Please model this.
Amino acid sequence: MTAGSLALCYSGGKDSTLAALLLEDFYDVTLVTAHFGVTDDWEHAAAAAERIGHEFERVEMERSVADDAVDQLREDGFPRNAIQSVHEHALETVAELDFDAVADGTRRDDRVPSVSRAHAQSLEDRHDVDYVAPLSGFGRGAVDRMVDATLEVTVGPSEEIRRADYEGELRALLAEAEGEAAIAEVFPDHDQTIVTDVRRE
Model:
């Protein structure tokens, strides 16, 4: 017996994969990648979902949201607000699917994306779903230790690790609008992960 069906916003990275493992004993979990159709990076999330043994779906978001996010990137000169707006739209899009609950892999220490209590309650009320954030009580160190104990991951720079997150598509759209040099001006250097296997006892 489970608490119902749950759609987890899924990138194929360590955080959303760990969230899936934490939820799978309580919900019928489907991993859902929301994307704009700009790149085929969703295929990497689909492969990661297959590796961990979960159903996978993808849903296309409104392209106008991506265009607005790129305008935000150009105006701000940094990605925080753009990624936050895309994440909120992704949750809205996934919440419209036929599931009892929606979830993501946001952590307690994440600056972006994050989901405020007010936004979570609004999402639940408007879509008649539960919003679940299983990593929201864990800091980065705790998450990293749980990942080390349960997952095999590949780590590398954002421009090399292809996973189904909003950043990859926003990078591509920004480069299309402003040229490749704009990516380094807007996005700070940081590593990303893609899950290659899960360690099950």
In short: Strands lie at 5-9, 28-35, 55-60, 101-103, 130-132, 151-157, 191-198. The longest strand covers residues 28-35. Helices lie at 14-23, 42-52, 63-76, 80-95, 117-127, 140-150, 166-178, 181-186.
